[in-house]
User: Fold these one by one.
Assistant:
Number 1:
Amino acid sequence: MPESPQHAITREEVAHLADLARIDLSDAELDHLAPQLSVILESIASIQGVAGDDVPPTSHALPLTNVYRDDVVRPGLTAEEALAGAPEVEQQRFKVPRILGDEQ
Amino acid sequence: MSAETRTAVELAGALASGETTSVEVTQAHLDRIAEVDGAVHAFLHVDAEGALRDAAASDARRAAGQTWSALDGLPIAVKDVLATRGLPTTCGSRILEGWVPPYDATVVARLRGAGLPILGKTNMDEFAMGSSTEHSAYGPTRNPWDLDRIPGGSGGGSAAAVAAYETPLAIGTDTGGSIRQPGAVTGTVGVKPTYGGVSRYGLVALANSLDQAGPVTRTVLDAALLHEVIGGHDPLDSTSIDQPVPALVEAARRGADGDLTGVRIGVVTELGGEGYQAGVLARFEESVELMTKAGAEVVEVSCPHFVHALATYYLILPAEASSNLARFDAMRYGLRVTPEAGADGGQPSAEDVMRATREAGFGDEVKRRIILGTYALSSGYYDAYYGQAQKVRTLVTRDFEAAFERADVLVSPTAPTTAFKLGEKVDDPLAMYLNDLATIPANLSGVPGISVPSGLADEDGLPAGVQILAPAMADDRVYRVGAALEALLAQEWGDALLAQAPPLPPAAEGAHR
C-alpha cells in the first residue's frame, strides 16, 4: 500500500465536511482537527484489502428483517409533552427560523 | 456493617427480613453521595426527593406483602444517556443541557416497574464517545481508587458510583467497551448483554448497531439479578430479540461454587501481549490458572481478524454517530444558539442556527467523530472505508464462530492498562481509542461479555479486569464463569477486591450538583 498522502485530510476538506455536517468550526478548530483526523485515517486505512470481494458486508449483529407490529392506535405523547423541550413554540407548533433565503 | 457497603443481594435479604427499609437504604446512599461525590463527581443529577418517594412506596408495598421484584426497594443510578421522564438527561453534552425527557427509556420503565428508586443520573463521555469520562461537558469523574486517575469511559460515572459505594447498582451502556472497561479500571463488575437482549428504546443512540445497555455492580450475582430485570423482548425496539432471557441468576449461583469442570475456556491469542501492561497480563494469567485448577479445559484460540477490529470500529461508529447526531438540529429540543446574522448577511436561517448551535453544543471528540463519519460515508470514500469495514465485521464474526466451536467462553484482559492519569490522553485520540482494543470485537459481533476484577497490577496497585465472552444469547455462560472466577479470586484475597481501595476523603470539594 502506498504511503500516507492518500489518507491525509486537508484543512479545506475538513472545512467542507464540517459544512456538510452543519457545524461552524472555528479557524483554530480546523487547524487542530485536520492533522488529528489524518492520523486517525492513516491508522484505520489499514483495513483496506483485508476482506476480499467474496465477503458479504455485515450492517447489523442480528440477522433480523422486516420486524412488524400490529397497525393499531396506541397512546403517545400529548402535544404539550412533545413540545415541552422545544426552544420556541407558537400555536402548538415548533417555531423555527426562516428556512428559505431572501431571494427564494 | 453499613448499608452502603453491602451488596444488592445482601440488602435485598435485609429488606425481606425487615432488618431495614428501602427508605433507610436509599437515605444511606444519598448521604454517601453527599459525602463523597464532591470528590468523585460520578453524578450529574441527584434526585433525592424522587428516590425517597419511590423508596417509601416500596416499603408500603412490602408491608402489604406485594413486592414487585427481587430488587424492589434497592436504589440504582442510571447513566445519563437513558431517557428518564421528569429527570434531566444530558448525555454529558451541552447540547442537551436542561432537557427533561417526556418519556422513559424501556430500561428505566422496567427499573421503575421492578420497584427500584432512581438515585440520579451518572456522568459519561459526551454521547458516550470516550474511554475516560473526560469528554463530559460537565467535568470528569474521578476514579475512587485514585482521584487523579480516570474511571474509564464512557460510563465512568456509573462504575465510579458503584466503586465508591454511592449506589449498589447502576446501569451503563456499552458500544465499544463503555461498561466493561470502566468496570476493569474501577475494580467493579460490568456486563454487556447480547446485542438485542436489552431494549434500546429511549437510549440516545451513539451507534445503533453496536449500543447495548447493561448492569454495573460490585458482584456477578448482583449483575445477574439486575440483568433479569432489564432484559427481554421489547416491541418498542425493532432490534430486540424475541426470545426468553436465559436463567442468569441461576447461572451466577451455580458458578459461585467455583467448579468449572468440563467448561472449555479459550484464551484469545490476539487479545494480549504487545500493548498490554505487564501487571494486567500477570493478573490475567493467574485468573486463567485458577480456572484451570477449578477444572476448566483451557485452549488457546486464534481470532486473526481481531487485529482489524479497532479500525473497523472507528469507521462504523463515526459513520453511524454522524447520522444519529444529525437529530440535534436546534429545532425541536435542546440548545438553540442564534447567530447575530446569517451567512448571507441577512436574518439567520434555520441552517445558520443549526451550524452555530452544533458548534457551541458539541465538544471536540464529538466533532472529530462526526467529521470522520461524514468523511467515511462520502461518495468516493464509502466503498474504501465504510463498505470495507462492514466486510471486516463479517470476518470478525466468523472468527468468533470458529472460536466458539472450540471453546464455551473466550477470555482476555478487559482493558490493556490500568487507569491512567486525568489529562494524559485527552488530546491524543488514537491513544484513547486503544483502551477498547479487547472489548470492541464483542460489539462488532453482538456477543455478550462481562468484566470481573482480576486483582491489582504490581506496577501501580490499581485494579485490572478479566473479560469473559460467550456466543450470542448465551449470556448465562458469562455469569456462570464470571461468578466462578469471582469466587476463586475471593478465596485467594479473603475479601472482595474493593475492600482494598483506599478510603475517600469526606466532603472535600463542597456540594455535589
Number 2:
Amino acid sequence: MDLGTFFVQLLNSVQYGLLLFLVASGLTLIFGIMGVINIAHGSFYMIGAYLAWSLSGAVGNFWLALVVGVALSVALGLVLEWLLINKLYDRDHLYQVLLTYGLILVFEELRAVIWGNDVHAVPVPALLKASIPLTENLSYPVYRLFISAVCLALAGLMYWVIQKTRLGMMIRAGASNREMVQSLGINIGFVYRVVFAVGVALAAFAGMIAAPVSSVFPGMGGQVLIICFVVVVIGGVGSVKGALVAAILIGLIDTFGKVIEVQIGGFSVLPELSGMSVYLLMAVVLLWRPQGIFGKRL
Amino acid sequence: MTGRVGLVAAVVAVLALAALPMVAEKFYVQLVTKILIMAIFAMSLDLLIGYTGLVSFGHAAFYGIAGYALALLSPQYEAASVWTSLPLAIGAAALAALVIGLFVLRTSGIYFIMVTLAFAQMAYFVFHDTKLAGGSDGIYIYVRPVAEIFGWKPFDLENFGHLYYVVLALAVGVFVLLRVVLASLFGRVIAGIRVNEHRMRSLGYPTFRYKLAAFVFAGALAGLAGWLSAVQFGVVNPDFLAWHLSGSVMMMVILGGMGTLVGPAIGAAAMMLAELWLQGLTKHWQLLMGGFIVLVALLLPRGLLGLLTTRGGPTDSTRG
C-alpha cells in the first residue's frame, strides 16, 4: 500500500468512525441518562437514510430534505418516548430489550410497506460533488470530508451542551439522581423526553448524511446497531468521550481490515475475516477492562 | 403449577402429544415437531434468563453452531451417525459457550446483553463470510443421520413420525433434567445468584464458576435443539445464528412466563402458532408480530403462565 492509498483509507476510517460515533452517542446517552437499553436504535438510522432518499426525491433538494427529516425524526422520538419508552424507566432491562425488539419488527415492516425492499442510491448534493486531487490518480470526494466535519461539529456541540449549559446540568443531574432533581422542581420527565428525541434525531441524521455514500438498503439498521453496541461496550456505557474514541478505533480497524491482505499458512486471514476484527477488539477490551475504556460503573 | 395438579397436567399433556401422530396429518406432526424443538431451545434460555438472571441476547449462536456441526460432520450424500454427530454437535455448542462465557460473564447487566449479542454476531460472520460452510447460502444435509448400533436401527429419522417421537422424548427428557438440576444445590445457588450475587459470593460460593456452568449447560441444550432443527430441515444457513432468532427465543421465554420451564414451552407453541396465523392474515405479518411483542413487554411481564397463577416466575422486585 503506497502513501496515497494509505492516506485515503485513513480519511475513510475517520469518516466512518465519526459517523458511527453519531449513532452510538445517542445510544450511550439514552442508556447513561435514562437507563434504557434501546435495541431499536439502528432502526432510526435506517429510517433517516430512507427519509433522505424519499424526501430529497420529493422536494428535489438534499438540504431541505435534511431539515424536514430531522424535524420528523425529533417528532418520532417525542411520540415514542411519550407513548412507550417512559413506561420502561423502572422496568428490568429484559423488558426494555423485548419492547424495543418489537419496535424493530414494526419499523422494518413499515419500511417495507412505505418504501419497499429495494436498494436505493441517493445522489451527492451538487454543492459538494467535487473531489480534491491528492496525487496524479488519487482524489478524495469533498462530501466525505463534509461528513467528518459535520460529525466533529456535532460532537463539539454535544460536549458544550452537556458540560456548559443549564439544560446539560439538568441532564447530568437527572442521570445521577432522578428523584432529587425532580424534588428540586425540575421537570425530569420533560428532560428525558428531550434526550430521547435528540438520540433518535442523531441516529436518523447520521443515516441521512450517510445515505449518499452508503446507499439505502433494508438491513442497514441491524448492521449499524450491532457495531454501535461494540462501540459502546469498548468505550464504556454512558460515556460520550468513550464512544468517540471507540468509534474512531473501530473505523480504523474495520477499514484497514478490508484492504490489508494477511495470509497465515496459506489461508487468507484478512480481508476474509475482517467482519470479525471489531469483535476481536471487543474481546480484548473485555479482558483488559470489562467496563470499557472510559466506563466507571460495574 | 406445582404439586399434584401440575403433575397430572404434565402427564395429560405428554399423553396427548404422544397420541398426536395417530390422529393428525403430516403437516401438523411436523409443525409440533418444530414447536417441541423450539421448546427445548426456549427452556435452555430460561435457565439463563429466568433462573440465573443472565439476559443473554446471543443464544442462537449455540443453536446454530450445533446445526453447522451436524452439516460439517455429514459426508455429502451420505448419512452421519446419530451416536457420533449428536454428542459432537452438543460438545461444539458447549465448547463455544465455555469460550464465549469466559468473556461475557466478566460483565453484567446491560453490558451482558450487548456483549452476548456481539459475540453471537461474530459467530454469525464466521459462517456468513467465510467459505468454511457454504457462506450465506448454507449447506444442505442430503441424508439425515442414521441411528444404527451394530446393525440394529432403533428409529429412522427419515420417517417424520419417528423424528417426532425422538423429539418428544428429548423435550420431555430436557424438561425433567432441568427440573432435577434446578431442585439440586446447583439450582439453589444460581437462584441465589439471581437475587443477590454479592451475598452468594460472601457466603463463599464461587459465583463466576456457577454462572459459567449454567451458561455452558444452557449452551449445550441449545445445541441439542440446533442439531434437531438441522435434522428436521435438512439444511443449515447463517439464519440459524442470526440475532432475530435470539430475539424470538427470548420472546418465547417471556411470553410463556420466565423462570417456570413450562412457560417457555407454552411460549414457544404460542409464538409459532401466532406466527403461522399472522402469516395467513397478511404479507406484512411482522408488523402485527412486532406490535404483539410490544404489548407483551408492556402488559404481560410474567407471561401467559402469570395469568393463570399468582405464584410462579420471579417478579421485578426479586430481580437484582
Number 3:
Amino acid sequence: MRKDLVWLFAGILFFGLLYLLNWGVKAISTDLLVWIGAFLSLAIFSFLYQDNPFYKFAEHLFVGVSAAYWMCMGFWNTLVPNLIAKLHPPIVKGVLPAIAEKPPEYWYIIPAALGIMFLMRLSPKAPWISRWALAFIVGTTTGLNLVRYLRSDFLGQIKSTLIPVIVVENGSLSVGGSFSNIVIVLGVLCGLIYFFFSKEHKGIFGVASRVGIYILMITFGASFGYTVMARISLLVGRMRFLLGDWMGLLQ
Amino acid sequence: MRRQIPLIITFIVGSVLIISVFIPHKPFGQLGENFSVYFDIIAVFAFILGAGNLLRVHGNRIYKKHKDWPYSMVTVAGFTLMMIAGLFKIGGSPGITGDLTEPGSMFEELYMYVFTPLMATMFALLAFYVASASHRAFRAKNKEATVLLLAAFVILLGRTPFGVKLTSWLPDPLSFLEIPNLASWIMSVPNMAGQRAIMVGIALGVISMALRVILGVERTYLGADSD
Amino acid sequence: MSFFETIANIDRRVIFLFIGFAVIIPVLLSFSCREEATPIVQSIFDKIESLPEGSKVLMSFDYGPSTVPEVQPMVDAFLRHCCEKNLKIYMMALWGTGHNLISESMEDIIEKEFPHKVYGVDYVNLGYKAGNQGLINVILTDMKKMYTTDARGTEIDAVPMMVDIRNLKSFDLILSLGGGFPGIKEWVLFGGDPGNIPMAGGATAVSAPLLYPYYPRQLLGLLGGIKGAAEYESALIKGYPKFKTYSHPAIDMMGPQTVAHIVIVFFIVIGNITFFIGRKREEGEKREGGVIK
C-alpha cells in the first residue's frame, strides 16, 4: 500500500479513537439525514487529498439535484402563478385556489410563445427558432442595462467624486478628511487615466498613470484580503456543521 | 431571415425600454413594464432548457456507455428524485396547495441535507486552495506587487481582533496608524477610488456594448450561421 | 533535501492540513472575539433605529447555501432588530435558494424568538420570483403585477400588510442580503437609485469591496462579510443587551477567522522568504559561473 495512504488512514483512525474515547458515541448525531449531509460534505472534502470515486459521486449528484431544484423553484413560483394562472385561472384551482377565480389575461400568450420558442433549442430540426426568444432576452437586458448603468455607475459615480478637497469640521481644517478626499478624487482620475490606452503614457500623463496603477494595486490587495476572509468563513461554517451538528462537539 | 428577425426584435425591445425611461406614459411605459414581465417568465424557461439539456447530455452518456457513465446515472437519479419531490410537493402538511419549501416536505429535506452540504462544501474547498495559491504565487517581485501584498496584509490582519492587539500600544496621536484604522481607511478611500475608476470604465463598456447590440452591430449572441 | 528546499517545495496538502487545524481548533475551543461597529455598519444600525414603529422594510434574500455562513448572521441580526423595533418585514428572494432561506429564517428567528408576531400583519413571505433585474424593474412601478400571491398561496390583497403596498417606493428601507448576481448592485441600479429609496446591504466579503463606490450616496451602509456581520451583532448587543444571551454566530466565527488569517499571512511570508533566498542563490551561482546578468 502507498506510504501516504497508510499515514492518511492512521491519522483518521487516531482521531476517530480520540473522539470516541473522549466524547463517546453519545455525542454523535442519530439523525440519518445529518449523517447523509456529513457523508456528502466529507466526500467533497476528500478531493483535497486526491480525486476519488466518492468525490465524483457527490459532484455528479450535486449537478442533478441543483438542476431539478432550480426548475421546481421556477415552475411553482413563477410559471404557475404568473403564466398558467393568468392564461387560464381555473386550471390552478387545485394548487392556488386563491387566484383561480380571477379573469384571464390572454396577452400572456406572448411570453408563453417566446418560452416555447426558447425550448426549441433542444429540437434537432429547428433550433434556430430559439434565437427569437434569445433576441428578446438580449434586447431586454441591453435596454435596461444601458440606462441604469449610465445613471448609477457612470453619472452617479462622477457625482459622488465631486467632493470638497478642503474639509472643514467644527470651524477648523480637518487634515485627515481633506487628505482622504484628495486621495479619492486623484485616485479616481488617475485610475481612469491608466485605463486610457489611446494616448501614450508619457510625461505628466505617464506620472498620473503610475499613480493610478498604485491605487489599483491597493484596490486589488484589499479585494484579495476580503476574498480570503470570505473563503475562510465558508470553511468555518462547514466545520461548525461537522463538529457541531454531526459530531456533537460544540455547545 | 433567420438572423434578421432576431436583430429586429432586439432593436425594437431595446429601444422601447430606453424610450420608456424618457416617456414613462402609454404606450412606452406600459410596453416597458410588459417586456420586463415577459423577461421574468422566459427566465423560467431557461431553467427548463438547462434541465432538458442536462438530461440529454447525461442520457446520451448512459446510452452510449461513455467513460464514467455510472456517474451520469447518479446525476439523472438525483435529478429525478428532486424533481418528483418538487413537482408533486411530496410530504409537508398542506401538500400540493402549500409552499414548496414547507418544513418536513421531501423537497425541503433534500435541500437541507443533500443540496446544502454539497454546495456549501464545494465553496468551502476554496479556502484551502486560496491558502495554497497565496503561498505559491503571491510574490513581491516588483514595487506594484509589494504594494498589493502590503495592502492585503493590512486588510487580513486589520479585519481581525489580532490586528487590534498588534498595534493597540500606539499613542492617541498615532492612532490612525493602528492596523484596524488603516484597514478601514484603505477600504473607504483608495479601494473606493480604484473600484470607482473600474466601475466607470465598466459602465462605459456596458453602454457601448448595449448600443452595439441594439443597433445590430454586435451579433455574436445569435451563434453560428449553421444553426 | 535541505530544509530550505523542503520549505520551498512544500506539498500543498501540508498547507491544507495547517488550514484545517487553524479552523478546527479555534472552533472546538469556542474562541470568539467582540467587535466594534465601523461607520459603514453603524449607519445601517442608526437608520433602522430611526425608523418609527410600523415602518415597512423589504428584505431580499439573494444568497444560497454556499454563502450562508457569511450572510445568515446578518439576516438574523436584521430580523431581530426589525422585530424589536416593531417594523413590518416583507421578505422576498431573487435567488431560488433564498426561498428556502426565508422559510428557515422565519422559523428560527421570528417564530421562535418573537412568537407574538403575526404572519401577514407583522411579517410576510413573498417568496422567489425569476427574472433577476427584470423583476426589480417591474416591482419598481407595480409590485402586484408579479406578486399575485404570497409564498403560501394566499391572494396578495388578502394579506393585511400588502394592502397599501403599490410598488418599491412604498417601502421605507430596502435591505439586500447577498453577494452574487443578482444582488446588491442590481438593487441599487434598478431599484434604490432610480426610485430614490433608502437602501442598505449585507454582502459577502468577495463582493463587498466592489460595492464601496455606492457608499454613502446610493447605499447608506454595507455589511462586508463575516466581519460586518460580527460588527452588527455587537452593535445590536450594545443597543439591546438582552440579545447577549441569543446566538451570535458571526462573533463566534471571528476566532477561527483570526487564526486562519494569521496562518495564511505566515505562509505568504514563508513563500516570499524562500523566493528571495532562491533568487539570491541563483544570482550567486550565475556569478560563480562567470555569467553576470
